[in-house]
């Protein structure tokens, strides 16, 4: 277990144990302090606040402020109104709450003391809001952050409109490269559509309590090839990368047509992606007919990971989402889970769990669907190489401290790592390789790299198409689904851990 996780566990225990003592003093049964959200419900009731304050906690991003504000208000009911008391509530609750809860010098004063406290309503709101903003910013930066799943690339492990908590402590909190930024927006301000950050101060890659990403972790990271982009998310952005557009149409044409909207972004402001880490630094990755092999060993098939299968049905039969549901297969036609090829042949997106339990009627035949060789897969060999999303590699994932010979083949595979991610000048002068103007035949990597794939294997823009993820792009580990929505709450998914 990492030092970061030990600190989180100790802080969480301190917060809840302290709240237990505070509840006892306030006349609330102590055990209620240990139940997430129920504890804030009890605080709202005890303080006689409007009940809507409790429900506002469930608003993404803004809900963090509300929870902090409720805690500040609860501390005020102990007669503690000063700036230092608010600061202790926000930054050191795992120490301050046990003090309030168990010190013989502290008591629950109640609503009357709050009502008699001479401070304007505006001042009270400003104080609480300021501390809430600072606290929420620090929590989002160093502890955890809320994310929403926007696309089906991780289905059905993660569904569109799953709301997640992403742990920053799992791999160590990363210090922002651009500390001067508007809080609670990523890279673009709403309404004005302008940059939300300044690069006047730029902090090189720094990570506290660093630990490596583990194979098969579901990981959030900054999209590596989003360093340069055509700033038109509807048509380009992270959907069609700048580099893909240049390869297809040529650099001059792209700059002639879109030069006024081509921008660059620092690492921490590149688009957030979420995928499964299928290979880590030092691994030899290969995909054979859709089966992932690491160091020649087949990897586990995750139950909710899905891929296309070809389904042949009898002449005169019809297939739709309802018919597939009867067979035990859940599809969303709007997400391309069901594609008709001919009158009797369909592509169906099926999870590993569904396939294992599938019993087809007579005349139905299920077979593997294998993607054709594709020149668009990384590292952009021609079709003659026969690489595709289903037959890929072998490809070595770079590891910090490992060395490679700078052969023509390795230059194709690792040039971006050497030049862009690790900041070197690499030149080929008449067949001789120069690194930072010094002739060399080998290169030693400075960082660990990772290879990411979506669980929706035939509907995911991932490392197969744009390459490796450097360690300085890692944001955190997807840990918990705290809410999920599809025409209403998906109750069975709420508070599920992510595996």
Could you explain the architecture of this structure?
With 499 residues, this protein is of the alpha+beta class. Among the domains are: 3-142, no CATH class; 146-227 and 265-280 and 455-468 and 476-497, Ribbon (Umud Fragment, subunit A), CATH 2.10.109.10; 306-368, no CATH class. The chain is 29% helix and 21% strand. The chain is built from 14 helices and 23 strands. The chain has helices at residues 3-26, 38-46, 52-55, 62-76, 83-91, 93-102, 111-116, 121-142, 242-249, 251-258, 321-326, 352-356, 408-421, 463-466, and strands at residues 144-148, 162-167, 218-222, 228-230, 262-264, 272-279, 284-288, 291-294, 297-298, 306-312, 338-340, 345-351, 365-368, 392-396, 403-405, 426-429, 432-435, 438-439, 442-444, 449-453, 469-470, 474-484, 496-497. Strands 1, 2, 3, 6, 20, 21, 22 and 23 form an eight-stranded antiparallel β-sheet that branches. Strand 17 (432-435) and strand 18 form a beta hairpin. The longest helix is centred in the N-terminal third of the chain and has 24 residues, at 3-26. It is globular, with a radius of gyration of 27 Å. 33% of the residues are buried.
């Amino acid at each position: 277990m990492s030092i970061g996780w030990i600190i989180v566990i100790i802080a969480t225990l301190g917060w809840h144990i302290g709240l237990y003592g505070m509840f006892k003093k306030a006349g609330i049964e102590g055990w209620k302090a240990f139940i997430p959200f129920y504890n804030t419900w009890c605080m709202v009731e005890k303080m006689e606040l409007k009940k809507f304050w409790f429900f506002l906690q469930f608003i993404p991003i803004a809900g963090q402020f509300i929870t902090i504000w409720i805690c500040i208000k609860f501390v005020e009911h102990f007669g503690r109104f000063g700036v230092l008391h608010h600061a202790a509530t926000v930054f050191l609750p795992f120490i301050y709450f046990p003090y309030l809860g168990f010190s013989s010098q502290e008591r629950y004063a109640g609503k009357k003391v709050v009502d008699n406290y001479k401070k304007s309503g505006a001042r009270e709101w400003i104080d609480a809001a300021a501390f809430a903003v600072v606290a929420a910013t620090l929590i989002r930066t160093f502890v955890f952050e809320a994310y929403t799943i926007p696309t089906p690339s991780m289905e059905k492990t993660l569904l569109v409109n799953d709301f997640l908590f992403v742990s920053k402590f799992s791999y160590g909190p990363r210090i922002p490269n651009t500390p001067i930024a508007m809080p609670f927006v990523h890279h673009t301000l709403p309404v004005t559509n302008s940059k939300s950050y300044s690069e006047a101060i730029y902090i090189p890659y720094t990570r506290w309590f660093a630990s490596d990403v583990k194979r098969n972790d579901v990981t959030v990271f900054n999209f590596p090839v989003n360093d340069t982009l055509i700033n038109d998310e509807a048509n380009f952005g992270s959907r069609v990368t700048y580099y893909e557009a240049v390869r297809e149409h040529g650099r001059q044409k792209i700059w002639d047509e879109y030069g006024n909207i081509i921008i660059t972004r620092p690492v921490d402001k590149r688009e957030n992606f979420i995928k499964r880490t299928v290979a880590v630094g030092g691994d030899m990755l290969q995909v054979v007919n859709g089966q992932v092999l690491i160091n020649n060993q087949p990897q586990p098939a995750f139950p909710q990971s899905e891929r296309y299968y070809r389904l042949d049905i009898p002449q005169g039969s019809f297939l739709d989402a309802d018919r597939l549901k009867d067979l035990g297969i859940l599809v969303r036609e709007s997400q391309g889970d069901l594609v008709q090829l001919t009158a009797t042949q369909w592509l169906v997106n099926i999870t590993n769990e569904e396939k294992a339990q599938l019993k087809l009627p007579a005349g139905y035949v299920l077979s593997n669907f294998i993607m054709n060789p594709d020149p668009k897969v990384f590292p952009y060999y021609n079709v003659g190489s026969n690489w595709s999303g289903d037959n890929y590699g072998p490809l070595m994932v770079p590891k910090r401290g490992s060395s490679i010979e700078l052969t023509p083949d390795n230059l194709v595979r690792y040039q971006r790592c050497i030049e862009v991610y690790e900041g070197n000048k690499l030149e080929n002068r008449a067949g001789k390789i120069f690194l930072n103007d010094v002739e060399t035949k080998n290169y030693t990597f400075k960082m660990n790299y990772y290879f990411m794939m979506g669980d929706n294997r035939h509907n995911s823009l991932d490392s197969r198409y744009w390459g490796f993820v450097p360690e300085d792009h890692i944001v955190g580990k997807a840990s918990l689904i705290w809410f999920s929505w599809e025409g209403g709450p998906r109750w069975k998914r709420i508070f599920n851990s992510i595996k």
